[in-house]
Amino acid sequence: AQKVTQAQTEISVVEKEDVTLDCVYETRDTTYYLFWYKQPPSGELVFLIRRNSFDEQNEISGRYSWNFQKSTSSFNFTITASQVVDSAVYFCAEGGATNKLIFGTGTLLAVQP
Amino acid sequence: EAGVAQSPRYKIIEKRQSVAFWCNPISGHATLYWYQQILGQGPKLLIQFQNNGVVDDSQLPKDRFSAERLKGVDSTLKIQPAKLEDSAVYLCASSLDRLSYNEQFFGPGTRLTVL
């Protein structure tokens, strides 16, 4: 069965600290996609990144970086030098062939000034 | 490019009443999704349309929930009759098609409170 686990319910950091959000997934699909979405207080889900199961290269985009390790079924997300505007709920999700996304329960990140 | 539009943004009803939500996807997007997000949880897919046909409604409580996308564009989601446990945010999303490498774009959601 498909399942996404985000064990960290809430994380609080002080501005400029680095923070890593963990994501562990389970799937029976041989081809699948992994996603991270950000949900600010306004409520709208904002797409951050998509990776397919054949591409284990880490990716960096500005202050954001992602570490995909198929051997441990993990797709972790790191924010470097966090800012107050990064405060939001972050969701990891997994999708199979038909784009049906299975979301984790989310991690609430609070960045204090 | 206009995003996914949803209305109303907020709705408060009493249990056993009916309610309907509307969604207008991004122009040209063939696939439309309705998700239910209960407080403190991640979104859960209720129904997925490809054009005006249903692709997946396996998690839709069909005894009380219904959805349609008659012309392959706008969609409505209806609950009749509502229960207390239906209190949630209902998110609509769209994508170019239903292949997994296509990003899903989400609307702002409708927050439903059932009293």
The percentage of residues in β strands of chain A lies in: over 45%
Series of H and E elements of chain A: EEEEEEEEEEEE
What structural category arises from helix and sheet content of chain A? mainly beta
Low-confidence stretches of chain A: none
* Through-space gap between termini of chain B: 37 Å
DSSP E strands of chain A, number: 12
- Main pleated sheet of chain A: 6 strands, mixed
Structural notes for this entry:
- The complex is a heterodimer of chains A (about 110) and B (about 120).
- With about 110 residues, chain A is mainly β.
- In chain A, about 0% of the residues lie in helices and about 55% in strands.
- Chain A has strands at about 5, 10-15, 20, 25, 35-40, 45-50, 60, 65-70, 75-80, 90-95, 100-105, 105-110.
- Chain A is globular and about 45 Å long.
- Chain B is mainly beta.
- Helix content of chain B is about 0%, strand content about 50%.
- Chain B has strands at about 5, 10-15, 20-25, 30-35, 45-50, 55, 65-70, 75-80, 90-95, 105, 110-115.
- Chain B starts with a strand and ends with a strand.
- The chains are: A mainly beta (about 110), B mainly beta (about 120).
- The interface between A and B is medium-sized, with 26 and 27 residues.
Features:
heterodimer; A: 113 residues; mainly beta; 6-stranded mixed beta sheet; 12 strands; B: 115 residues; 4-stranded antiparallel beta sheet; globular
Question: Secondary-structure map with pairings?
Answer:
The complex is a heterodimer of chains A (113) and B (115).
Chain A: E1 3-5, E2 10-14, E3 19-21, E4 24-26, E5 33-39, E6 46-52, E7 59-61, E8 64-69, E9 74-79, E10 88-95, E11 101-103, E12 107-112
Parallel strand pairs in A: 2-12
Antiparallel strand pairs in A: 1-4, 3-9, 5-6, 5-10, 7-8, 8-9, 10-11, 10-12
Chain B: E1 5-7, E2 10-13, E3 19-24, E4 31-37, E5 44-50, E6 53-56, E7 65-68, E8 75-79, E9 88-95, E10 105-106, E11 110-114
Parallel strand pairs in B: 2-11
Antiparallel strand pairs in B: 1-3, 3-8, 4-5, 4-9, 5-6, 7-8, 9-10, 9-11
